[in-house]
Design goal:
The chain has 292 residues and is of the alpha/beta class. The chain folds into two domains: 120 residues, Rossmann fold, CATH 3.40.50; 151 residues, Glycogen Phosphorylase B (Rossmann fold), CATH 3.40.50. It is built from ten helices and eleven strands. It has a six-stranded parallel beta sheet with strand order 2-1-3-4-5-6, sandwiched between helices. A five-stranded parallel beta sheet has the order 8-7-9-10-11, with helices on both faces.
Length: 292
Protein backbone atom coordinates (compact mmCIF):
# COMPACT_ATOMS: atom_id res chain seq x y z
CA UNK A 1 0.00 0.00 0.00
CA UNK A 2 1.45 3.36 -1.05
CA UNK A 3 1.09 5.82 1.86
CA UNK A 4 2.55 9.31 2.25
CA UNK A 5 2.81 11.34 5.47
CA UNK A 6 2.92 15.14 5.15
CA UNK A 7 4.47 16.59 8.30
CA UNK A 8 6.55 19.63 9.38
CA UNK A 9 9.42 17.42 10.58
CA UNK A 10 10.17 13.79 11.37
CA UNK A 11 9.89 14.05 15.17
CA UNK A 12 6.46 15.68 15.01
CA UNK A 13 3.73 13.80 16.90
CA UNK A 14 3.98 10.08 15.95
CA UNK A 15 5.30 10.63 12.41
CA UNK A 16 8.49 8.56 12.59
CA UNK A 17 6.64 5.64 14.20
CA UNK A 18 3.78 5.78 11.70
CA UNK A 19 6.26 5.71 8.83
CA UNK A 20 7.65 2.41 10.08
CA UNK A 21 4.30 0.89 11.06
CA UNK A 22 2.58 1.74 7.78
CA UNK A 23 5.58 1.34 5.48
CA UNK A 24 4.95 4.97 4.54
CA UNK A 25 7.12 7.67 3.04
CA UNK A 26 7.54 11.00 4.85
CA UNK A 27 7.19 14.34 3.04
CA UNK A 28 8.14 17.75 4.42
CA UNK A 29 6.16 20.94 3.91
CA UNK A 30 8.42 21.98 1.04
CA UNK A 31 7.44 18.93 -1.03
CA UNK A 32 6.32 19.77 -4.56
CA UNK A 33 5.01 16.29 -5.33
CA UNK A 34 3.68 13.44 -3.21
CA UNK A 35 3.94 10.05 -4.84
CA UNK A 36 1.29 8.21 -2.79
CA UNK A 37 -2.20 6.78 -3.11
CA UNK A 38 -3.12 7.52 0.50
CA UNK A 39 -2.08 10.57 2.52
CA UNK A 40 -1.86 11.29 6.25
CA UNK A 41 -1.54 14.98 7.14
CA UNK A 42 -0.09 15.86 10.56
CA UNK A 43 -0.78 19.35 11.90
CA UNK A 44 -2.68 22.43 10.82
CA UNK A 45 0.25 23.85 8.84
CA UNK A 46 0.52 20.64 6.86
CA UNK A 47 -3.23 20.72 6.14
CA UNK A 48 -2.90 24.31 4.93
CA UNK A 49 -0.01 23.31 2.67
CA UNK A 50 -1.99 20.34 1.37
CA UNK A 51 -5.00 22.52 0.54
CA UNK A 52 -2.84 24.93 -1.48
CA UNK A 53 -0.47 22.56 -3.26
CA UNK A 54 -2.15 19.20 -3.64
CA UNK A 55 -5.87 19.91 -3.84
CA UNK A 56 -5.91 18.71 -7.45
CA UNK A 57 -4.16 15.48 -6.53
CA UNK A 58 -6.66 12.61 -6.44
CA UNK A 59 -5.55 10.59 -3.41
CA UNK A 60 -7.64 7.52 -2.70
CA UNK A 61 -7.89 8.56 0.96
CA UNK A 62 -6.75 11.44 3.17
CA UNK A 63 -6.68 11.67 6.99
CA UNK A 64 -5.53 14.49 9.26
CA UNK A 65 -4.07 14.57 12.78
CA UNK A 66 -4.46 17.83 14.72
CA UNK A 67 -1.76 17.82 17.33
CA UNK A 68 -1.08 21.30 18.68
CA UNK A 69 -2.64 24.63 19.59
CA UNK A 70 -1.97 26.16 16.16
CA UNK A 71 -5.25 24.48 15.27
CA UNK A 72 -7.14 26.67 17.75
CA UNK A 73 -6.48 29.91 15.89
CA UNK A 74 -7.55 28.40 12.55
CA UNK A 75 -10.23 26.04 13.84
CA UNK A 76 -13.11 27.52 11.79
CA UNK A 77 -11.26 27.03 8.50
CA UNK A 78 -9.93 23.58 9.50
CA UNK A 79 -13.35 22.32 10.61
CA UNK A 80 -15.01 23.57 7.44
CA UNK A 81 -12.29 22.10 5.20
CA UNK A 82 -12.28 18.59 6.68
CA UNK A 83 -16.08 18.52 6.78
CA UNK A 84 -16.44 19.62 3.16
CA UNK A 85 -13.83 17.11 1.98
CA UNK A 86 -14.97 14.28 4.30
CA UNK A 87 -11.51 13.88 5.83
CA UNK A 88 -11.26 11.63 8.94
CA UNK A 89 -9.83 13.50 11.94
CA UNK A 90 -7.56 12.42 14.81
CA UNK A 91 -6.81 14.99 17.51
CA UNK A 92 -5.37 15.67 20.94
CA UNK A 93 -8.35 15.55 23.35
CA UNK A 94 -7.65 19.06 24.69
CA UNK A 95 -8.73 20.47 21.31
CA UNK A 96 -12.29 19.18 21.73
CA UNK A 97 -13.79 22.65 22.36
CA UNK A 98 -12.48 23.76 18.99
CA UNK A 99 -13.59 20.71 16.99
CA UNK A 100 -17.04 20.68 15.38
CA UNK A 101 -16.45 17.44 13.48
CA UNK A 102 -16.26 13.84 14.74
CA UNK A 103 -12.73 12.81 15.73
CA UNK A 104 -10.75 9.99 17.29
CA UNK A 105 -8.61 11.09 20.28
CA UNK A 106 -4.87 10.48 20.32
CA UNK A 107 -2.13 11.66 22.69
CA UNK A 108 1.48 12.41 21.91
CA UNK A 109 3.94 9.53 21.95
CA UNK A 110 7.15 10.16 23.85
CA UNK A 111 10.35 8.21 24.33
CA UNK A 112 12.31 9.34 27.38
CA UNK A 113 16.06 8.60 27.47
CA UNK A 114 17.47 6.69 30.42
CA UNK A 115 17.57 9.19 33.30
CA UNK A 116 18.24 8.50 36.98
CA UNK A 117 15.26 9.74 38.97
CA UNK A 118 16.40 11.23 42.26
CA UNK A 119 13.90 13.33 44.17
CA UNK A 120 15.09 15.22 47.29
CA UNK A 121 13.68 14.24 50.69
CA UNK A 122 14.39 17.52 52.53
CA UNK A 123 12.16 19.77 50.40
CA UNK A 124 9.35 19.70 47.85
CA UNK A 125 10.57 20.45 44.33
CA UNK A 126 7.97 22.00 42.04
CA UNK A 127 8.68 22.42 38.33
CA UNK A 128 7.01 24.29 35.50
CA UNK A 129 8.29 24.31 31.92
CA UNK A 130 6.80 27.15 29.84
CA UNK A 131 9.67 27.45 27.35
CA UNK A 132 9.31 30.53 25.16
CA UNK A 133 5.63 30.68 26.16
CA UNK A 134 6.69 32.22 29.49
CA UNK A 135 7.17 35.59 27.81
CA UNK A 136 3.56 35.63 26.63
CA UNK A 137 1.97 33.93 29.67
CA UNK A 138 0.33 31.31 27.44
CA UNK A 139 0.45 28.68 30.20
CA UNK A 140 -0.47 30.91 33.14
CA UNK A 141 3.18 31.04 34.20
CA UNK A 142 2.87 34.41 35.94
CA UNK A 143 0.01 33.18 38.11
CA UNK A 144 1.80 29.90 38.91
CA UNK A 145 4.87 31.81 40.04
CA UNK A 146 2.78 34.12 42.25
CA UNK A 147 1.03 31.24 44.03
CA UNK A 148 4.25 29.29 44.60
CA UNK A 149 5.91 32.41 45.98
CA UNK A 150 3.17 32.73 48.62
CA UNK A 151 3.29 29.03 49.50
CA UNK A 152 7.08 29.17 49.88
CA UNK A 153 6.59 31.50 52.87
CA UNK A 154 5.04 28.56 54.76
CA UNK A 155 6.65 25.49 53.19
CA UNK A 156 10.14 24.33 52.24
CA UNK A 157 9.73 24.57 48.46
CA UNK A 158 12.20 24.70 45.62
CA UNK A 159 10.58 26.13 42.50
CA UNK A 160 12.20 25.50 39.12
CA UNK A 161 10.91 27.32 36.09
CA UNK A 162 12.51 25.47 33.20
CA UNK A 163 13.27 27.61 30.18
CA UNK A 164 16.22 28.22 27.87
CA UNK A 165 17.45 24.67 28.47
CA UNK A 166 18.21 21.84 26.08
CA UNK A 167 15.64 19.05 26.04
CA UNK A 168 18.04 16.71 27.85
CA UNK A 169 18.82 19.26 30.58
CA UNK A 170 15.13 20.06 30.97
CA UNK A 171 14.37 16.36 31.50
CA UNK A 172 17.14 16.06 34.09
CA UNK A 173 15.76 19.00 36.06
CA UNK A 174 12.22 17.68 35.73
CA UNK A 175 13.27 14.28 37.07
CA UNK A 176 14.04 15.91 40.44
CA UNK A 177 10.51 17.33 40.81
CA UNK A 178 7.85 15.95 43.12
CA UNK A 179 5.18 18.13 41.47
CA UNK A 180 5.12 19.22 37.84
CA UNK A 181 2.70 21.98 36.80
CA UNK A 182 1.85 21.82 33.11
CA UNK A 183 -0.69 24.66 32.65
CA UNK A 184 -2.92 27.05 34.59
CA UNK A 185 -5.30 28.29 31.92
CA UNK A 186 -8.82 27.22 32.89
CA UNK A 187 -10.81 30.15 34.32
CA UNK A 188 -7.61 32.21 34.29
CA UNK A 189 -8.51 35.82 33.36
CA UNK A 190 -4.83 36.73 32.97
CA UNK A 191 -3.62 34.37 30.25
CA UNK A 192 -2.82 35.55 26.76
CA UNK A 193 -5.51 34.03 24.54
CA UNK A 194 -3.91 35.04 21.24
CA UNK A 195 -2.21 31.66 20.79
CA UNK A 196 -5.57 29.93 21.01
CA UNK A 197 -7.77 32.43 19.22
CA UNK A 198 -10.01 34.78 21.17
CA UNK A 199 -13.50 33.40 20.55
CA UNK A 200 -13.29 30.26 22.70
CA UNK A 201 -11.59 30.13 26.10
CA UNK A 202 -8.70 27.66 26.06
CA UNK A 203 -9.08 25.46 29.14
CA UNK A 204 -5.71 23.74 29.11
CA UNK A 205 -4.18 20.42 28.24
CA UNK A 206 -2.04 17.50 29.13
CA UNK A 207 0.73 18.56 26.80
CA UNK A 208 3.97 16.92 25.82
CA UNK A 209 5.74 18.47 28.80
CA UNK A 210 3.16 17.06 31.19
CA UNK A 211 3.48 13.60 29.66
CA UNK A 212 7.25 13.83 30.13
CA UNK A 213 6.57 14.65 33.79
CA UNK A 214 4.50 11.49 34.10
CA UNK A 215 7.31 9.38 32.65
CA UNK A 216 9.68 10.98 35.19
CA UNK A 217 7.35 10.09 38.10
CA UNK A 218 6.30 13.63 38.93
CA UNK A 219 2.79 14.30 40.21
CA UNK A 220 1.45 16.22 37.21
CA UNK A 221 -1.05 19.05 37.73
CA UNK A 222 -2.83 20.84 34.91
CA UNK A 223 -6.01 22.57 33.85
CA UNK A 224 -8.01 20.60 31.33
CA UNK A 225 -11.57 19.60 30.50
CA UNK A 226 -12.59 16.04 31.23
CA UNK A 227 -13.23 14.53 27.81
CA UNK A 228 -14.66 11.15 26.88
CA UNK A 229 -11.85 8.90 25.67
CA UNK A 230 -13.06 5.67 27.30
CA UNK A 231 -13.90 4.04 23.98
CA UNK A 232 -10.22 4.20 23.11
CA UNK A 233 -8.24 4.46 26.37
CA UNK A 234 -8.80 5.69 29.97
CA UNK A 235 -8.72 9.40 30.71
CA UNK A 236 -5.31 10.25 32.25
CA UNK A 237 -5.17 10.26 36.09
CA UNK A 238 -3.84 13.81 36.26
CA UNK A 239 -4.54 16.23 39.11
CA UNK A 240 -7.10 18.56 37.58
CA UNK A 241 -7.09 22.13 38.83
CA UNK A 242 -8.20 25.60 37.75
CA UNK A 243 -7.38 29.23 38.47
CA UNK A 244 -9.55 29.35 41.59
CA UNK A 245 -8.55 26.07 43.25
CA UNK A 246 -4.89 26.00 42.20
CA UNK A 247 -3.35 27.31 45.45
CA UNK A 248 -5.37 24.86 47.58
CA UNK A 249 -4.61 21.97 45.25
CA UNK A 250 -0.85 22.57 45.34
CA UNK A 251 -0.89 23.02 49.11
CA UNK A 252 -2.75 19.71 49.48
CA UNK A 253 -0.11 17.94 47.39
CA UNK A 254 2.71 19.50 49.41
CA UNK A 255 1.16 18.23 52.66
CA UNK A 256 0.07 14.76 51.50
CA UNK A 257 3.21 12.89 50.52
CA UNK A 258 1.61 9.44 50.37
CA UNK A 259 -1.26 10.67 48.19
CA UNK A 260 1.11 12.63 45.94
CA UNK A 261 3.39 9.64 45.42
CA UNK A 262 0.42 7.36 44.75
CA UNK A 263 -0.94 9.67 42.06
CA UNK A 264 2.53 10.02 40.51
CA UNK A 265 2.79 6.22 40.28
CA UNK A 266 -0.66 5.94 38.65
CA UNK A 267 0.31 8.63 36.15
CA UNK A 268 3.60 6.87 35.38
CA UNK A 269 1.83 3.58 34.70
CA UNK A 270 -0.79 5.31 32.51
CA UNK A 271 1.84 7.15 30.44
CA UNK A 272 3.96 4.02 30.07
CA UNK A 273 0.96 2.16 28.68
CA UNK A 274 -0.92 4.77 26.62
CA UNK A 275 1.79 7.24 25.50
CA UNK A 276 4.42 4.75 24.42
CA UNK A 277 5.18 4.56 20.68
CA UNK A 278 3.76 1.04 20.47
CA UNK A 279 0.30 1.95 21.77
CA UNK A 280 -0.07 5.31 20.00
CA UNK A 281 1.13 3.86 16.69
CA UNK A 282 -1.11 0.79 16.94
CA UNK A 283 -4.08 2.97 17.93
CA UNK A 284 -3.62 5.30 14.97
CA UNK A 285 -2.75 2.66 12.38
CA UNK A 286 -5.74 0.49 13.34
CA UNK A 287 -8.18 3.32 12.70
CA UNK A 288 -6.30 4.68 9.68
CA UNK A 289 -6.33 1.24 8.05
CA UNK A 290 -10.12 1.14 8.48
CA UNK A 291 -10.46 4.27 6.30
CA UNK A 292 -8.03 3.24 3.57
Amino acid sequence: MNIGILVPHGKYFAAEHLVRALGARMYGLSAEEIDAEHLIIIGMKALERYSKRFKEKKFKSVAVIFSDTNFCVHNEWCNAYVKENKIPVYAMPDLHNYLTVPYIPAYQTITIPEIEINKPTDRVVICHSPGEKAVYNFKGTDQIKSVIKELSKRYNIEYKMLSKLSWEDCLKEKSTAHIFIDQLTKNNPCINQSRFGNKIQYNGALGKSGIEGMFLKCCVVTTMDVTSTERYFPFPPIVLTDYFSFADDIEMLINNVEYRNGVAEKQYQWAKKYCCPEFVTAHLTRHINETI
